[in-house]
């Protein structure tokens, strides 16, 4: 099958059905032709500032038609879109901008980043000369450059190792229906939402963007637009499931055929609830890093037979390695290493970091887990997040999953703090939707966890602990509490 550029694929979709809805955000719905026209005018403006092949454009915008237009504009001229959180503090974005060295920063105030061209949020491109946009075909290489802070908080960029090309008659490997409707409540500056949104655009699916995540609003959008696929993270799944049953029942979500969840561990009780609600054949989970050396996939039916697994590798290879570098047998927890099936294939490159590589080209993203005899992978936690309590390992994800089974707990984050006796103590931050006492939380956990895993201290907070992608800066929360006076 011949390969074509992202830009050519998008142009073909416009030619086939210019009036079909392309993107819906909180303010409006635009058709394919309207989206193409806005992206074209944006592309012309970007070229005026020197954007083009081999150059990045940093995009610091919320989920919106304008965000998608900026990304499409980059692809039209062969530039690389480099999304960043529009809510990130200035110093963090500055570190990313220094790494990316973009020609333009979209979503920044004028002169915010030295002599770089900065286009503020709300900026609109001017009219095209002659009333139409004519651009030569171009291919972005790489087609995206995503940010990651890792466990240290120092920013790095992950540049995908592939150009922006697809098969001429594109079919999404993620089951996103051609000319269908894809619900995307996740923030597009994160890799998962960005990749799934790109897949939806290439499939010609109507991309429905949520704003700040709202559980009931998401159900209403699925119902209104008859979404047949959705990307979601466990934090969002939990908030939707904890809506009163009569609220969930108001909305018809029967149009959903594929629901992908990833980005963070999903508590087994929550996964079971969604499988029971929508059906096991509709619930799919993927595990991979932005680096994409390898990936696993598991559907709901497989998960019921391998409870807690994230699936078997469907791309690349994975193995479990012990502290001394030895390959571990089935059932033993160690560090997850992975590599592409083709040893000569480079799926990414870093700016601002170095990969952790061992003999044979195996790389680690810092996750701990085990494999069963059938090759199904079970994740424990991030190696950097594990808490050593008196010689015993405590995995925050396990404690958080148990906490969030409580009907009033909206989200939780578990961290390790210094302890003179045990080395570390388990500390839990809890965001609840109603009155809940520490004693009640302890009793709830006592029914689910061995004693040493139960947090010694609790902290009840009034604000959500994770962002809309389910991400949390655990290292920063720990640092703030380690520095606080006792």
Summarize the helices and strands and which ones pair or pack.
Blueprint: E1 3-5, H1 6-16, E2 21-24, E3 29-31, H2 32-48, E4 56-59, H3 65-77, E5 80-83, H4 90-100, E6 104-106, E7 117-119, E8 145-148, E9 156-160, E10 165-167, E11 181-184, H5 191-203, E12 206-209, H6 215-225, E13 229-232, H7 234-241, H8 245-248, E14 258-261, H9 268-278, E15 283-287, E16 295-299, H10 300-305, E17 312-315, E18 317-321, E19 334-339, E20 348-351, E21 356-358, E22 362-371, E23 377-382, E24 387-389, E25 392-394, H11 396-403, E26 409-419, E27 423-432, H12 438-446, E28 457-461, H13 474-483
Parallel strand pairs: 2-12, 4-5, 4-6, 6-7, 11-12, 11-13, 13-14, 14-15, 27-28
Antiparallel strand pairs: 1-10, 2-3, 8-9, 9-20, 15-16, 16-17, 18-19, 19-22, 21-22, 22-23, 24-25, 26-27
Helix pairs in contact: 2-3, 6-7
Q: Which segments are poorly predicted (pLDDT under 50) over 5 or more consecutive residues?
A: none
Annotated CATH topology of the domain at 268-382: Luciferase, domain 3
Terminus-to-terminus distance = 65 Å
Helix content: 25-40%
Radius of gyration: 23 Å
Count of β-strands: 28
CATH architecture of the domain at 268-382: Roll
What portion of the residues fall into strands of 2 or more residues? 25-35%
Compute the average pLDDT.
92
CATH class term of the domain at 268-382: Mainly Beta
Side by side, the strands of the main sheet go 3-2-12-11-13-14-15-16-17
Q: Biggest β-sheet: count, sense, barrel? A: 9 strands, mixed
Name the CATH superfamily classification of the domain at 268-382. Answer: Luciferase, Domain 3
């Amino acid at each position: 099958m011949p390969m074509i550029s992202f830009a050519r694929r998008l142009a073909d979709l416009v030619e086939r059905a210019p009036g079909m809805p392309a993107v819906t955000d909180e303010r409006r719905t635009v058709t394919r032709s309207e989206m193409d026209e806005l992206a074209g005018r944006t592309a012309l403006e970007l070229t005026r500032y020197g954007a083009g092949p081999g150059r990045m454009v940093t995009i610091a915008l919320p989920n919106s038609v304008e965000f998608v237009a900026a990304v499409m504009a980059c692809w039209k001229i062969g530039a690389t879109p480099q999304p960043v959180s529009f809510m990130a503090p200035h110093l963090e974005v500055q570190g990313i901008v220094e790494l990316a060295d973009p020609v333009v920063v979209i979503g920044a105030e004028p002169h915010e980043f030295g002599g770089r061209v900065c286009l503020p949020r709300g900026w609109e491109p001017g009219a095209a000369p002659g009333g139409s946009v004519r651009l030569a075909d171009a291919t972005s290489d790489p087609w995206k450059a995503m940010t990651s802070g890792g466990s240290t908080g120092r920013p790095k960029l992950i540049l995908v190792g592939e150009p922006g090309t697809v098969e001429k008659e594109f079919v999404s490997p993620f089951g996103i229906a051609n000319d269908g409707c894809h619900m995307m409540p996740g923030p597009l500056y994160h890799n998962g939402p960005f990749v799934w949104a790109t897949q939806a655009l290439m499939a010609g699916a109507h991309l429905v963007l949520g704003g700040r995540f709202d559980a009931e609003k998401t159900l209403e959008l699925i119902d209104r637009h008859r979404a047949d696929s959705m990307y979601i993270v466990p934090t969002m799944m939990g908030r939707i499931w904890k809506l009163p049953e009569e609220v969930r029942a108001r909305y018809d979500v029967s149009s959903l055929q594929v629901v992908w969840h990833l980005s963070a561990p999903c508590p087994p009780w929550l996964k079971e609830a969604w499988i029971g609600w929508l059906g096991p054949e509709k619930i799919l989970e993927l595990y991979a890093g932005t680096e994409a050396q390898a990936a696993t996939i598991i559907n709901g039916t497989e998960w019921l037979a391998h409870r807690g697994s994230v699936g078997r590798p469907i791309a690349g290879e994975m193995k479990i390695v012990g502290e001394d570098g030895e390959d571990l047998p089935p059932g033993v927890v160690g560090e997850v290493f992975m590599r592409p099936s083709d040893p000569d294939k480079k799926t990414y490159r870093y700016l601002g970091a170095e990969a952790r590589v061992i003999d044979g080209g195996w790389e680690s993203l810092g996750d701990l887990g085990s494999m069963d005899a059938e090759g199904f992978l079970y994740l424990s936690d991030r190696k950097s997040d594990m808490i050593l309590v008196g010689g015993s390992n405590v995995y925050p994800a396990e404690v958080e999953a148990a906490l969030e089974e409580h009907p009033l707990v909206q989200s939780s984050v578990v961290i390790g703090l210094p302890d003179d006796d045990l080395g570390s103590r388990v500390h839990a931050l809890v965001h609840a939707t109603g009155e809940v006492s520490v004693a009640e939380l302890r009793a709830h956990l006592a029914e689910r966890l061995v004693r040493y895993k139960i947090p010694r201290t609790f902290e009840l907070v009034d604000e959500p602990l994770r962002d809309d992608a389910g991400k949390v800066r655990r290292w920063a929360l720990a640092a703030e509490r380690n520095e606080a006076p006792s």
